[in-house]
Amino acid sequence: MVSSFFTKIPSLSAIFSIYTSLSAFTIVFRTILHEILPAKIRHFIVSKFTDYFSSYFNPNFTFIIEEQSDYVTNQTFRAAQVYLPTLLTRISTGSLLVSSSNLKDPMAKPKFGIPVKAKITDDFEGIPLEWTLLSDRDNNPHQKYQKRWESAIFQHHTTFETLAMEPELKNTLIRDLDAFSSGKDFYKSVGRAWKRGYLLYGPPGTGKSSLVAAIANHMNFNIYDLQIQSVKHDEMLRQILTMTENRSILLMEDLDCSGADARDEDKEDDENQDMKKKKDPKVTLSGLLNFVDGLWSSCVEERIIIFTTNHKEKLDPALLRPGRMDVHILMDYCTPVVFKKLAALYLETEDHNLFEPLEKMFLEVKATPAEITEQLMASKNPDVALKGLIEFLERKKMTKESVDFDIKEAEA
């Protein structure tokens, strides 16, 4: 249906060609009138011809190219974005957009672009053209340009080298990412979209955000952090997601409390569901899944989707199946191995006489890596920091034993 729609619409080149042909015909017609008819008769016919058609034809015609068309990126707009920067010397407004996003290299070459409201002169087979870039922020009834949803400038320093994580799990994840990165031909041969979904789940403070940073740095991908709470309905979600680019990560954190329906809607009758949606439109799980599986998958390449949640059990099973969330990673409480990695990072020590009693305590007390990190940062002196950590874990153990005792008393 989409392909037939585009085959029925003439291309921009065809429109200009027709316009050129009409212009040539007009020139030939005027030449014939000049050679055959007397001047007075010729002027009379031309004036009548001009008066008659001037009310129907305007010598100036405007093509409006919007960035989005039915929530899908307008490829003509993309083509104009590629073509117009080659005409920067023809900007008639005397201004040029200069930018740089490379914070790591201050000597990097700046990027040149077209400012909003700038005018560029051009021609097509002798027909003069003028390009103008407009923004939807302008009070103009014709919106020719819409601001884009940009990826965040990513400067997080966490890498897999510095990430405190169980070595076996870390190596398995790295192998999976590398296989995905080199799997373009495989995904094409099996007819699947070149994307990979990861679900990071576990208690708060277990390093889910740090793992996302390590993945982004390992893959050299940009991150699109989707705050689902600010998305009012499925149509807006569709519009936002179509603006993302290839080789990027779509991140949705805390999915269980994001505002989207974590489980499918109750099985009410269709009429009640329709009334509920009209009264309180919002992003639905089905809307998210349908778009990720459908249109978005067919329009993108080499994408990673990462969902994080503190409560995996609250998520609908439809969200967790392979093809949507291919890899499930449990981000758990601190283990002896993770503790040693943290101690090496923050205290610059790989061995200490307090390591053995601390390792035993980690088998009895649940503490998150974030809690351990906070204690290790209290002092640069390993003796002071580790003693403080032992006291912290002992307090947690006593609190837990007190709570467990109260529960047993209540049950008795």
Describe the protein in words.
Its cofactor is Mg(2+). InterPro entries: AAA+_ATPase, AAA_N_dom, At3g28540-like_C, ATPase_AAA_core, ATPase_AAA_CS, Mitochondrial_chaperone_BCS1, P-loop_NTPase. One of its GO terms (molecular function) is ATP binding. The chain crosses the membrane at residues 12-33. Keywords: ATP-binding, Hydrolase, Magnesium, Membrane, Nucleotide-binding, Transmembrane, Transmembrane helix. This protein is an alpha/beta fold. It folds into three domains: 2-132, no CATH class; 179-330, 3-Layer(aba) Sandwich (Rossmann fold), CATH 3.40.50.300; 336-411, no CATH class. The chain is 44% helix and 12% strand. The chain is built from 16 helices and eleven strands. It has helices at 2-8, 12-36, 39-54, 75-83, 167-181, 184-189, 208-219, 234-241, 270-279, 285-293, 295-299, 317-320, 336-346, 355-362, 369-376, 382-411, and strands spanning 68-69, 72-73, 97-99, 111-113, 119-124, 127-132, 195-201, 222-225, 248-252, 303-309, 327-330. Strands 8-9-10-7-11 form a five-stranded parallel beta sheet, covered by helices on one side. The protein has a two-stranded antiparallel sheet with strand order 1-2. Helix 13 runs parallel beside helix 15 (369-376) and helix 14 runs parallel beside helix 16. The longest helix is centred in the last third of the chain and has 30 residues, at 382-411. The radius of gyration is 31 Å and the shape is elongated. 17% of the residues are buried. The model is unreliable at 1-7, 138-154, 261-269 and 275-279 (pLDDT under 50).
